[in-house]
Amino acid sequence: MWEKRPILLLILATAAILVGTTITMVLPFAWVNTEADRIEGVIPYTALQQEGRDLYIREGCNNCHSQTVRPLVAEVLRYGDYSKSGEFVYDRPFLWGSKRTGPDLARLGGKYPDSWHYKHMASPRAMVPRTNMPDYDWLSENPIDPAMIQRKMEVLGFPYTAEEIKALNGKNEMDAMVAYMQKLGSDIPWRKTGATAIVGELKNPYAGVPHAQLEEWEELYYENCAACHGAHHEGEIGPELIGANYEENQLFEIIYNGIPDGGMPPFNALGTDKVWKLTNVIKYYGQGEGHP
Amino acid sequence: METPPYNYAIVRSFVTWSVIWGLVAVLVGVIVSFQMIEPALNFPPYLTFGRLRPIHTNAGIYGWGVGVIFATFYYIVQRLCKTPIWSVKLAKFQLWFFNATIIASAVTLLLGYTTSKEYHEMEWPIDVMVVILWVAFAINIIMTIIKRQEEQMYISLWYMLAAIVGVAILYLVNSAAMPVSLFKSYSAYAGTNDANVHWWFGHNAVAMALTAPPLAMFYYFLPKTTGVPIYSHRLSIIAFWSLIFMYLWTGAHHLLWTPVPDWIQTLAMAFSVMLIAPSWGSVFNGYLSMNGQWQQMRDNYLVKYLILGITFYGLQTLQGPMQAIRTFSAFIHYTDWVPAHIHMGTMGWVSMIAFASIYYLVPYIYGKRVYSIPLANLQFWLILVGQLTWSISLWVAGVLQAGMWNAMNPDGSLTYTFMETMVEMYPYWWIRAAGGLIYFAGLLVFIYNLVMTVRQGEPVATAATATEGRG
Fold first, then answer.
1. FRET label pair with B192: which of A106, B95, B406, B447, CA 20 to 30 Å apart?
2. At which of B166, B188, B210 does a domain end?
3. Which of A72, A107, A132, A256 to probe by mutation at the B interface, max B CB count within 10 Å?
4. Could you report the predicted ipTM of this complex, rounded to two decimals?
5. pLDDT of B435-460, one tens digit each?
6. What's the rounded Cα separation, in Å, for the pair B373 and B359?
7. Total domains, chain B
8. Number of neighbours of residue B175 by Cβ within 10 angstroms
9. Domain spans of chain A?
């Protein structure tokens, strides 16, 4: 019968479409972003951060970077604490993404110091030699528009102060982008609670290895440390390492877990073995012995 | 019997423009595939991967895909209803408004005006244009069906009507936004809600724009080409209703393991697996229609396109549900496997059917025989090899990448840094780009064949003898 009546077919098709739609798309509004989802400490973006977020959208960063850490072992180890619904209540639109050509950014905030981001955004290959990320040095040539940003904050209903808007004068798009990078995933104190606790006694498996062996492992230093601490341990974004007299266990823990909130990123993704090798390389050359 | 005065001019125009936008889509696709290998090929601010990739996807879906839908539906609806198009004026308006919308989309995306929502990146003024466009299309199709001279509506018309109402609902809901200016708006939904609404849209846009309409084409052009009817009418009824009922539950399979509530994810997973049945209902209906006709795979190039197309639909609808299972998604999601999946659907299924439909239409709309069937065969092999190269290289890459992301040392620490996994992708990205180039060559052959048909094709006396694609 419906095969002979187009209007009836339209009505039936609409009804069929609306069943699944109602249950899986409309109904969830009763659960999501309600009081049950709320997380204390999650606050709206500041004017500068929101502008950075809009630039992230404008440049299509979400085409290569996701922003959700799934509750899976390898993922939490690599990126940090898994994402929670309440962390996204101020995100319009959501930016979870669907492809990781580059790494997930949901927990990027506080991983690196600001100076790392400025250098990396301007020239990614200066920090990570074989990355395919384009250069965004040109962002620092574009000033941002405080009046427009104020309007955006009003539309979003986010709190702001006149001083905050005034302070945007003279800032450029790169400043906004870095401010946004540092906000990502940092509203909950996961870096303090989520650091890997080292259980039991740490023992350097490479104590007293010959010098020739250390030279072989130096490659690890160039790949992972030189961008911030300099090719000759002289320091740049990070401090000079020559003469830094760390206990080897202390050094291992710093490299493995990093220094929370913008000090230094954790290098746990290298695995314990490589971190021990790095510990020995840095310890050796830190004494300033015979290194060019 | 007297033939009503069908309007083929509008079909011709939509064919021309959809092919032009298809060329743009594939060309930009090839460009961005090289940008992924060589970052120096990004020319900021306009020509960067981040801004070009949405132009590639939207030109493909809305320029090529929807353009072909407009072209074929205006042909099919007139023939199946035995009546001319309801309003030629409205259809002409739709043609020019369609092109204006696509051009406006490409320009604004280049300028960085984007909502960031995948396959729905265009800002709100273009959403308004799309709504006008779709309403014009819907009215014309529905009115033509209402004043039809044939009592029974054939299968293709069911899919057409479902697609019209489906796209309308999806697009309107997902467009809701708070405008800041002409070029900037914020989603009406926030965070997890926004994600859930968006992937309800995203997955069902695939259903309503890239599944139902190509099925409408397949159900029409396969029997027309082979000369034998569809195997089972009852099977097509079951497949149709269960397909449009089940699809809408599955959007959250794009969001497995995210903060979206678990029960939505579980429903999406279950319905995705159930969707195999209606999808394969159509695949089998196609295969069984070929009973006793399989020699046409050799004799008739159109059958080759159509059967390979429905085969890729079958593979796509097996691989998709597999990816929608939590355990497999945990492994494969976010890797290069996913674009390989999408491209089997778009380059294999949708475009194969689209090419076949256009080749079928040529004698009717141009009054000329296809210029060269050997060239059409060459094109078939180029797009097949191009697509397989594209997809297979990235399936391998995706598994490799997922394996490296998950690899752990005996003490429980990770084995590889992110960069160590990324550099492994470069060789596969080269192969993928080569696959894209081969596909692009196939498309150029297609366009050459169409142009030569118009210029030098042998005129056909009557439409009845027109589509014997022997060669």
1. B406
2. B188
3. A132
4. 0.95
5. 999 999 999 999 999 999 999 999 99
6. 10
7. 2
8. 21
9. 8-37, 47-193, 211-286
